Amino acid sequence: MRIRLAEQDEEKHWDDYVNCNPKATLCHLYGWGKVIRETYGHSAYYLMAEINNVEKGNKVVGVLPMVHIKSLLFGNALVSMPFLNYGGLLADDDNTEKMLLEEAIRLGRDLRAKNIELRHTHPIFWPNGQGVAATGEAKIPEPMTHKVRMLLDLPESSAKLFETFKSKLRSQIRKPQKEGLMTVIGGAELLDDYYQVFSINMRDLGSPVHSKKLFGNILKEFGSRVRLGVVKYQGASAAAGLIFCFRDMVEIIWASSLKSFNHLSPNMLLYWAFLEYVTDAGYRRFDFGRSTPNEGTYKFKEQWGAKPSTLYWYENGLRGDSRRPAEEKAYRFRKKGEEWWQSMPLFLANTIGPMIRRNIPL
Q1: Per-residue pLDDT for 306 more than 70?
Q2: Backbone angles phi, psi at 174, to 5 degrees
Q3: How far is 104 from 80, CA to CA, in rounded Å?
Q4: Beta bridge pairs of residue 11
Q5: What is the pLDDT confidence band of residue 34, given thresholds at 50, 70 and 90?
Q6: What CATH architecture applies to the domain 2-145+312-324?
Q7: Which CATH superfamily is domain 149-309 in?
Q8: Distance between CA atoms of 76 and 108, rounded to whole angstroms?
Q9: Same CATH fold, 149-309 and 2-145+312-324?
């Protein structure tokens, strides 16, 4: 077996493996590294494990996509994958996972990174003393499991899904419909409307916003796998979201609504429109994304019938640093800067925000 960096012309080779691995997520797709590099300039390092097959040539048996995020304020790390909920090691067996991590550690040290962050939807069973002697320095600590993903199994039709909702939820969906709100689902033609809602909401939350270029590059790279949804009221955009379709799963990655329209519940209509759209299109699971159990977003997702599934985030400190430095620094930044950011003119927030956000891997 050999571990090497994937070449730029090997996207199909990489994605063929990802599409066939049952543990893969949309975050493992090759295109994300290109999107992040073209948007923010971060270097992507995509490790590929291969074995030689006499009859069929080289066969991919594992992959590890990583992006190098380096800044004075938020740290220096190889992350799999930044700005997304998932990523991490993807391999046919434990030994391949270990070899991929060993190579990632060597690469991280060459890049003078302080940490390697892996965002898994499943636990890794081989660390913590089991086989460590055979894997050199491929050691990782106990996972951080304080976050969950919220998953909803979808029936064969949206009509049947609607029947499963409690009466209160059905009423919350019907309210914006009765008020005349409407949802449009499409592609790049909705980018301006989408980003207007997203950027205002991020400013109002006191959080630096992603660059509009990020979403344009996502649409360009992934095409019809990505859909934008915008809720309109009397010509104005009130809520917006982005979904990504991967195999039988659809994940809503970014969603926002404007507080000035809260009394009309546009967010409820947005989520229902997406659920209706993907259920009738034949998808069978909906991922509401990452949440902290029992907090507000968790309860919002739970009311739709979504069930929690534990996330396993690992960090390998390459220099003995404390865990989660980027998260801790980002938290301190938010606490100190929220009120100041909320008072900022939108054009200024949208100019400065991406310069900061590009270095926060969360």
Answers
A1: yes
A2: -70, -30
A3: 11
A4: none
A5: very high
A6: 3-Layer(aba) Sandwich (3.40)
A7: Gcn5-related N-acetyltransferase (GNAT) (3.40.630.30)
A8: 10
A9: yes
Q: Are 49 and 99 in contact (CB under 8 A)?
A: yes
Paired tokens of 240: 């917006």
The whole-angstrom separation of Cα 253 and Cα 251 is 6
Query: pTM of this prediction?
Result: 0.92
Note the pLDDT tens digit of each residue in 43-68: 999 999 999 876 667 899 999 999 99
Domain spans of the chain, in order of start: 2-145+312-324, 149-309
Which pLDDT value is given to residue 142? Answer: 82
Q: Above 80 in pLDDT, residue 71?
A: yes
Beta strands in 198-311 (DSSP E): 226-233, 236-246, 249-257, 285-291, 307-310
| pLDDT surpassing 60 at residue 351 | yes
Distance from CA of residue 308 to its chain's centroid? 16
- Name the E strands within 260-359: 285-291, 307-310, 312-317
